[in-house]
Queue: 4 jobs
Job 1
Amino acid sequence: MILKTKQLSKSFGGLKAINKVDFELQKNEIRGIIGPNGSGKSTFFNLVSGIYDSDPGSYIEFDGHDITFAPPHEIATYGLSRTFQLLRLYQDMTVIDNVMSGYHTRVPYKFFDAVIGRKKIWDQERAIKEEMMELLSFVGLADYAELNASELSGGQRRLLVLARAIAMKPKLLMLDEPAAGLSPVNVDNLMKIIMQLKEKYGLTLIIIEHILKVVMDTCNSVTVFDHGQKIAEGTPAQVKDDNAVIEAYLGKKMDDEEMRKALAV
Amino acid sequence: MEKFKSIIRDYPFIAFIIAFVILAFVPSVVFTDVYQSHLATLIFVNIVVAAGLNIVKGYCGQVTVGHVGLFAVGSYTAGTLFLYLGLGFWATLPIAIIVTAFFGVAMGIPSFRLEGPYLALATLGGGEAIRLFIENGNFFRSTFGISDIPTPSLMGYNFDSPDRYYFISMTIMIIAVYFSFSILRSGVGRAFMSIREDPICAAAAGINVKKYKILAFILSAMFAGAAGAVYAHMPPGYIHPNNYTVIEMVTFLAMVVLGGLGHIWGGIIGAIVITIVYDLTRPLYKYQLLIFGLTIVLTILFMPKGLGGFIDRYFLEKRFKKKTGTEKTT
């Protein structure tokens, strides 16, 4: 088991954004998380990656480490990487610097070697750069390596954010709406790249996505959130027919009696 | 030529040795009077401060307006060590660097919670507090200033005139710039930049934001401390609290902004240009502040990445055109 939460809660004032969620994830799984807006999906990501502190009584375990109270940079060193819904691109850095900064946890040399500027530092830096250029050409951004990230188009930015999250060779990658705002062709392209990267690096994935087709096609299992609670979990086919899910997404499913009543009024 | 390039790439310090040799011949070949050596020393001191400021402001994105206070700490550490213990340059320089590093920690702690203009206000207070503390303390000779701080001597050779002291300041400058280059071009520089761009994302990428923020403050403080000590021992060896006011701070900021925030050459280009302009406009001293204030505003408006970014952009567009055959416009 790579990720496990027990009684995970988070409240903002009186609002319970996440309410006693038990979550378990196996290695090599692709888990989709769906739910209406404001159902706590992103809050769940922020709690797991350490951006928010969870409420007392919560417990989060990642790859054998208790990370309930760990700061985000420590969690990242255990091998958890994530993207953000609002991208949080480093706008004023070049594309290659963006990706190389994702490599931070794997930088092999010590600070004082860097200050003195020994030869091996520059050798290692070049090796990192080559590896990252390879990753960039894999996602198709190699030509843009020296441009500022702010000069990329929306679709390219999504790819860059993905490459930056992969750069640290994570064990678990959490994608927060990777395909938001993309055209259908680009969505297919992006999902293809994500699947190729998963094979290449042996990743475990959690994907938050509103495009249900993406979730149903690619995920092994799906968790549904509503009002901060987990309301359903299972294979895509099971979840699709779950009454609670249909209610949360589409409104209540009515039987004939109720329908007749509703129409008569 | 290719081979030479690859050697420089592997051993960057060779480039700095070449720069050292070239600069060593400048006084005897180019300069016509002693004043130019003095001006060169001032440029070198400013380069060291601006290179340090570029680390914390340009790269790490922490708006500090108290840097001149750290410069003053460096100078007055050197000054008081001479005054009370009679120490010379070679002892005061390392002590000044270490003492200033500790003040850098104090200056950096507010950055954990404050951002942007709020941090600027806090550090402005810090810098002014240091100056007022010096000005009102008899221990530091208050407004009399400390005078007759001796110039350094090495193996019987005394660097006692501006054209001799040039070599001391030049050496320190070369070493400082070398360190700043190797720090900023390594992963540490990238970590600083990610914190500037987005601290939350930087933390999620495994960068310890607090540690790197304080590291940036310590490093830049060490630069300011070294510059302060060099400035204090500069002939005629006189320091006064009025040399460390907000006006000097604005000048330092103008250097970094004009040279290019977050550009590796930023502080260096800016320090050279501003110090020379400052000297040329001395007859117009009434308007100097106006000029520098305008420089900052106009640079930020029309050349947000400064001279360094401007030059970079030119070469980048050339390379991009060569590679893809298309025009890249912004």
Note: Chain B has a mean pLDDT of 91.
Job 2
Amino acid sequence: MVLPSHLQHNLMPSEINFVAENELITILPRYSMNKIELIGHKIPALRAMRREKVPIWVAVILKSQDKCSIVPPKWLNLAYLKDKYEEEIRKPQVFSELPWNWLEISKVLLAKAADDLSDPSHQLRSVLQDLREIRLVKSHKGLRELNESNIQLNGLSLLEINELRPFVLTVMNKLRQLHDTTTTRGAVEAGEGDDMDDEDNYDDEDD
Amino acid sequence: MASNMDIDDILQEFDNSSKASLKKQKKLSSSTPNIYDELVTAMLNERMAPEILPYKHELMTQVLEQISNQQQYLLDSHEYGDLNAQSGVVSGDFKLQLMIIETDVERINYLVRLYLRTRLSKIDKFTIHYINETADAEESNSSLLSREETEYMHQHFKILTQLYNNCFLKKMPHTLTLLDDTTGGESMIVTPDVNQPVFIKSVTKAGIIIPLGEEDELELEENGIYVVKYSLIRRYIEIGDVVLI
């Protein structure tokens, strides 16, 4: 009741968005502003044309008031993303390294600060979408490797993990239950197993 | 001459020590993660763990204190703004700053609420289990539940048993009315499933090696993302080498 069941073992995309907005980003202020002491983070005194790092949500507020322009992170441009896309194609087995919240951050920046980005936003959107799709296909292919004890998912971002989570957890839980029953019964059925093997051999000889 | 040397030495020493202390301070401020990030981690860990994690006493006192400080500041500033509205002392900048602070308080408020709600949902689910667990625990800064949570748990259980009794338990044979019956091979107490797989991220430089049974082991690299059984990495969450995601 306190926490609806759809929230209990998974995160909402909006919550991931929230977490991503805490990351720091460089801004180029247009006006000066006194420093602000926030809980857990201090925003330094801003001076015009002096780069500073602030949380994304602050940058978005300042941007909406035309108080600053946002310096896009070094991975958010066409050349870099295209490179990554090609890397994804070249290496079908691994995910290329992208920032932990690349989807969320690019989404926020494309929506709120499109004019600060170095490339036209429709091109960026399309290459981001390409990247996302190829990674989605890969992660779906990877589901074949699921087993009951562990898997490794290096290179995936939080949002992508979150998409996989409900399926992966249910499957692993089921596999674990099956595994548990086989290990506890294994000892009992060992004798029967031998008999089966004998029969197989017998058949083979007949052929 | 000798005295000169001494003074130089002393100066040198002073210089060095002040530099060292500066460095130390810098290191401290950069290495202690700020309470905001800590709260986010605590919330995510709590959210993804199948069982309830020890209550973050220190962190929560700090956060709550900071929130009330900021709220007081906002109140005072608004009062100040109202008083000086006509004279034009209050600039748009000042208002913008207040708005940013307000947003910050709201954001952290939301995190605190989410953290507590997640904990309450687990207390609801595993009431009897945690009543048994905390039965002989003393109230301290390392206890599993906070004082309010313990109180809530007992109240909740009382109301629940009353409801069950009034609705149907009084019409049942006495032997079937126990809510914490463990006879008959099946325990009626709902306990958290600690073998559930969870998604984790290793955040320590030193590799962690966890046993997988049958001589198999798995080494967790820094920043690696894995899915493993919760019971295997439980103690690493407590020391913060591993975070749930």
Note: Residues 5-144 of chain A form a domain with the Ribosomal Protein L9; domain 1 fold (CATH 3.40.5.50).
Job 3
Amino acid sequence: MTLSHQRSEGHQRSEGHQRSEGDRRSAADHLSLGDVVSVMGQVRTGIESVIEGKRPAIDLALTVLLAEGHLLVEDVPGVGKTMLAKALGRSIDCSVRRLQFTPDLLPSDITGVAVFNQESRDFEFKPGGIFANIVVGDEINRASPKTQSALLESMEERQVSVDGTTYLLELPFMVIATQNPIEMEGTYPLPEAQRDRFMARIAIGYPTPSAELDMLESHGSYDPLAELQAATDGETIKGLIEAVKGVYVSPAVRHYLVQVVNATRNSRDLRLGASPRATLQLLRASRAWAALSGRDYVSPDDVAGLATAVLAHRVLPSTDAQLARRTVDDVVSQLVTSVHLPDRR
Amino acid sequence: MRSSDRLILASTVAVLLISFTPQPLTSDSSYLGQAWLLVIVLAAVTTGLRRARLTAGFVFATQVAVLTALLFVFSSLVPGRGEPWYEHYLQLWGQGIEHMQTQAAPMTPDAGVKIIFVSVLGVIFIVTDLLVSALERPAWGIAPPAAAFAVPAIGLGIDTGLMAFWCLALGYLGILIADGSNRTARWTRGLSRDSADGFGTATPVVWRAAGLIGVPALLATAVLGLALPTLALPGPGIGSGSGRGGALQLTDPTLDLRRNLNQAEDTVVMTYTSDRPGGLYLRMASLPQFDASGWRNVQMRLESGTRLPQIPGVGGDSGERRETTISVGNFGSEYLPLPYAPRQVDVAGDWAYDPNSLVMISGDRSGRDDAIRDLTYRVESVDIEPDPSALTRAVAGTPADSNTTAEVPTDLPEDLRQLTRQVTKGADTDAEKAIAIQKFLRSSKFTYSTEPLPGSGYRALENFLLRDRRGYCEQFAASMAMMAREVGIPTRVAVGFLPGKRVKDNTWEVSIRDMHAWPELFFAGYGWVRFEPTPAAQTGTPPAWTVPRAESSTEESLNPTEQPSSEPSSETSAPSAGPTAGADDTSADGGPRWQQRLVGTGIGLFVLLVMAAPATIRFRRRSARLTGEGEPAEIVEDVWAELRDTVIDYGGRWPNGSPRTIGSSLGSRLEPSDSAAMSQVALLVERGRYARTLEPDGLGELPAMTQRIRRGLAPDSRLRRLRAVIVPKSLFTRRKI
């Protein structure tokens, strides 16, 4: 486990990575979109051996990983939220930290703290739980808002500032937070600003009976998570992320994407629409999804398919929609179908 | 120019062009000024309102209001009696309608007619605009102007002329072109393919297509229009064709007949000198139409000139020419008295002839009633004198106007039919039947009198034939023509003069009481043959050919008790050198029949062409789309558009969504292999639209794949498949963008 915790003003990396950066970089640069499908296929197979029958959720998680986003997994306890997060971390040979959010968790537990070293007579930075490639924030809505906010800067800017010093986080960096629905007891709803920083929110849902039966069999005899082998490493993922950036988005699709986001702002059923950040993240997610599907271009179907996952957690339903018992997911997916798709290039 | 402006401009031009259509109806063209003012004001108001993006209902209401206001202004220009303006306006309408009913075209100026024309043109503009702009159905834009075109053409039986047709066609073409360029500007389809990528880039396609379809279509219709005969329309009006512009209204020649016959003083009205012996029946008019109201004129297609065409039913110029000089005295008519069959007339003035009846009519528009007064002219004619023995074997022929001259009214009273059957019982050939009828009418049962029982139509015939048996030439001629027609011989009633009195060698004098009517019967090989059923007291001996040399037994059995009122002509003419009936059946009637067939074929072809047009356009569009030429993305888009049109043609709905969703939605209806092809096409479309580049690999199979999908999409119902071919819906649906 390597951490970048050097005190410096500039953009610094850990020594280990700096050492071999040249050749690793070149290897990563040569990754193409074809590698996205093969590498991610292996990762997916690995995760699927742990969580059966949740292909859409897994694909979305991989999409967010490739799109340099953060994932919010929201569902009732016990459906495998943490399992998904851990399996994803295991499948990639990189640093994985797990933060169990509790009401007494302090912000410094996340970011780290500078302690005085008697020997060196100097302050030394003890990195917090955020310093990892994949951070699993378990039950994030059980922590106090103050602690939740500590995640803010690191998630968006991929850096941590403690006592006036900025520490860069190592790439790839992804926060997978799980939370229980806010109606549950003992939860603090995630602030809107923070929700906006998550690229996508997914629900895992109950397994199908057959998947549940398979689960009983496998989990009864051994721990599949323990046997899960890493299919790739962080450097490869970095290369893949770079490759995904080359996915082509035609003007028509950009136009469509903006229209979709715009629709959330003009809808009567929504009190708060999606932010421009959401537009950007929807674009990135669409690129990643297209790459995962083996395409070098984004199609409107990618945008439409991801819109609910990317937009629904950012918007707020209007009172009318709430009274009509319409969930934001319904509202957003209906908005997406209402946006007319240009029939031409 | 905005797209809405373009359509309004096109509609305006169409209505302005169509405003010329009623011009032949009236001698007063001042309605044009008001109509144009009205249409232009309406167009300006409409343009403003459309630009302000007001609702269609509001625009329509404003148009109606403007129309009403302007009509108020126009009607108030006509002095009234101080009644409210709407009453005044309605009175003007009533006045105009009455004027139209009482006047023949061209009508004299009338304020009512003017206000009617202006109102109708205003309404036509509003309705056209409603269809073209508000309802977005430019194709229907032809209907209101076409109504304006059709009213004089059909309703009033007036030849509207080629110019009016061109006006209508050009206006419509304008609307279509305006719509076409709007569509292209809106990124919708051009005609042959769907690759309009920007504003106006495909406008040339529309223009080209408009030229390609419109110009030949216009030319074809114009040429065909010249080739087709004017439709025979009921009514006393006689249209004149061959670009004489407008129609001539003719008087009923029979009206004068009785009046002239009853003239107290028998004055000489004309003299004629012929270069061959024998008196001449001078024929003026011919009445081919027979129905419940009696014998009438029909609308004729007149030709200019004094050299007459082929004699109907007679092959070539058989027989020797007779030259006659006729001097008319104090007698007025628009018909030129001529011996039958005239070949060439040397006469001063403007004259036209009807090729069917060889009747000549004055072409002068004014003073036509006096056209022949104090006129001297020379005529070359051929005598139609069939050989009596040959004629008895003759059969009825089919003249060019047989739809009129051979038509027996279905409501002909049964007692008349029965009498005819009784009279012609025992006669074998058509000619024998005709002879029997003439013999019957010339029998002593009938008395010549200019005071028959009153009555008209069938009633007059029944009175004459079954009750009173008193009448003059008109009754005799009408009866014979009716009875001969009943037994299947084409007939018509000729009106003219008896040969008159011989004064010198070959000079004859015709007096007013010689005015006469006689039947003409059409026999194959002989053409129109004159018969004479009017008794000898008035007419002398019947024509030689109508009395067989040897009285046959049939005649005896027919009327055993009656004595011929006059002896048959003693002269036994030698068998004429004329053609025999058998050989002539084809050659004599060949001409008109051949023409009839040609015209029929022409009409048939035209109808077929019109019916096949949508299928042809659709087929052309399909083959243009499936050529596989052009940019890969364009090829794929063409195929996609073709699939969309196919689905619409088959009555389906083109799903909404991305190519992929559409592909899977349609693929679910197809067989697995076709479904795979469908998703492959959908994928190519997706790549073409959204990927950076589309590799041209695999595009060669696209046409075959498309055809396979087409077959897969075809509905089971044969009727729906057929409809998709004949009336492809995709041509008529407007695609939303």
Note: The first helix of chain B runs from residue 3 to 18.
Job 4
Amino acid sequence: MLKDDNRREMLEKVLKDHNYQKSALLEILHGAQEIYGFLDKELLTEISGLLNLPPSQVYGVATFYSFFNLRKPGEHIITACLGTACYVKGIEQIMTAIEEEFHLKRGGSTKDGKLSLFQTRCIGACAMAPNISIDDVIIGKATKEETIKHIKQILGEDKTETI
Amino acid sequence: MNTHPMKLKIDGVDVECSEGSTILTAAKTVGINIPTLCYLEGLTPYGGCRLCLVEVSGTNKLFPACATPVASGMEVTTQSPKLHEYRKMVLQTLLAERTHICSVCIANDHCELQTQTNQYGVDHVFYERNWSCNEIDSTHDFLVIDRNRCILCTRCVRACDEIEGVHTLDLKFHGKNTDVIMDQDELWSKACSCTSCRKCAKVCPVGAIYVEGENIEYTKDPQVIAFIVERRKCLK
């Protein structure tokens, strides 16, 4: 993963911006995730080496916050809000429907790596519950049918592009 | 160093101690015993087990004695019916969180959690138990970790970091998924930073980390940390 592309330079720049300070670990992890899209063990080892921190501590911090992805996410990311309001309004059923329709599990991706399904805590749009975000576009008052239609549309667009 | 003596009252007894000491250490100087689990002399206080909660007059809040610095004029109560109930509750939640079955545990009779539980007369757990299924790692030559017995006191993590200085152990995730890990969640045999110093097994208050084939009586030696810290002071 850490090839000689400019991503490595970008990471170095993030570290330099924070003066290689151990206390800036969280900001650096944020920056690294922005550059690479996810944090795998190799990258975490690299960061722990550059910051002179124990690998276990860096791994502990990265796993503590659910915002960090430790596995490569799919091309399209669906994030379901598991806040109280969304939960009451039936986000669980929508998630189960997505899982069955696209054969994936929450927290994971489809086999072809096209789609990932994640869950998150309240996104602060409770008035529009249940909320589900598809590639950072939030769909409020979501229903099973509508959500699945949206996802199929996005996946379909890819196909037409490649043809 | 500023060594203004601090005067405070613990359970009605006048105590004089130096600035910067905690309620727990101050109580110890006059022989008042406050129950603890995650606290270990020589390690940084963690304040995680909440067993050492004490009442301080003038506020409704309870304070962890191990991590609260003393202040002049403080009036501390370490034993009261309210605290007794709280401590019983803490012990029950600890027991309910993972799978603690004394009769099949290697640390039976040498377990700090069991000792405290007996002392507070906790013979039932009034919470639904999690019966969580956590991983056991016995890949190391002689050290074994059974995470089902872990109470997440982080004594091992702190001893590994502060005393041995390798920080092989840490915690992953948060909430009910928290677990002790070696390096980046590797198997213990693959954790290259581990020096096999056994300190984690020595300080573990329960039977979560132990030495395979060794009598737990010989393994457990939490006082060794305070001893090492004391001796290292002479080096400076």
Note: Residues 86-235 of chain B form a domain with the Alpha-Beta Plaits fold (CATH 3.30.70.20).
